[in-house]
Amino acid sequence: MQAWSAALWLLLACSCTDARAARESEQLDRYPLGDIVEICHTPQRNDRGLPEGLQLLAPVLSRGVCVSLDVVRPDGARDSPRWGVWTYEYVRTEQKQGPDGILRTHFSDIASSSLGLEAQGEYARNVFAGEWRFWYSSGKPRAVGSFNEGKLSGEWKFWLPDGSPDPQRSGIYSGGVRSTSGPR
Description:
The chain is α+β, with helices and mostly antiparallel strands. The protein is built from two helices and eleven strands, in the order αβββββαββββββ.
């Protein structure tokens, strides 16, 4: 039974890796001047700038395309905004204390440490655009809806960790503000 379980896990891991590779190849076709980038995120930083209800619940690694701009900043670097489909995945991490005494979160590569999807959707020049989907670490849906110019827009559906609808957050949004409780 254990050999069968290991074979199933390997098959699922390979299919996730194949799907990730296919998605990234498609994105590079859409943005041929871009590069696939992997970014570490922790809940303490909330560096995605999302509202309450969509903030990180656990550490994640994100992957997608960044396209370097021709403009060089005063420090010599170039901005590289996110474009196209980006995927955020829950990952295994380790907490290690550095020589300076500060506790740091260490990430492994996404292929070997992924625990499942956290979010997936489109960016347009570093701004959330179009439909996005969010999941709990259990794999249950957390939220689905669209962004317009980086703000929640149109119908958004939210769920609680047990899978039941979240009526406090679900509804129709405009400019990031909930205007009604949704369709009746």
